[in-house]
Amino acid sequence: MLARVRLFVAVSIFILVLGSTSFKTCAQSTEDAAMGKRFVEMWRLVSHPNRLADGTTKQNANSMAYIIYMDTNPIHICYVAMDPNRPKRKSEFAPTESEALSEITGSSSYCGTVEIHAKEGFVIHHVEIASVPNVVGRDGKRWFTFDGPNRLTLRDDPQGLQPGITDSTLIWERVP
After folding, report:
1. Residue 108: which pLDDT band, with cuts at 50, 70 and 90?
2. Topology given in CATH for the domain delimited by 2-174
């Protein structure tokens, strides 16, 4: 319960920051808006397999993640992920250099707006705030499918993949 409260506070802060920032907007069709309502919720990452160029599959290290789609106009998104196996700090207040590096490399987050393309089956995440400054301003295209009301699959568009990865799929479960 405490973790969910912390997440709620963090998301609230992101929303305040988002509300004070200008964003790209896109006129969405009625069909796109209706599909957008299916996204609106908090989702927990269930699985994040990456297929590598050599044909093997490996789970992404940042396997603990939440994504929140907010019913605003346009729809806003907050994404936070971390590696649950990264080392814990010895001190809550003063990380060592290696602990600080572990925190940076073992987590990622971004916020922005979402553009829905219901007929085509993809969304575009317009990144406005990110833990990695180089990602700010980028657009991430993800192909989506729903498996019932409580399961969402997002597949990164091949053009947005890191070198050596041929497929990256994020499987999300609606948080009750």
Report:
1. confident
2. Lipocalin (2.40.128)
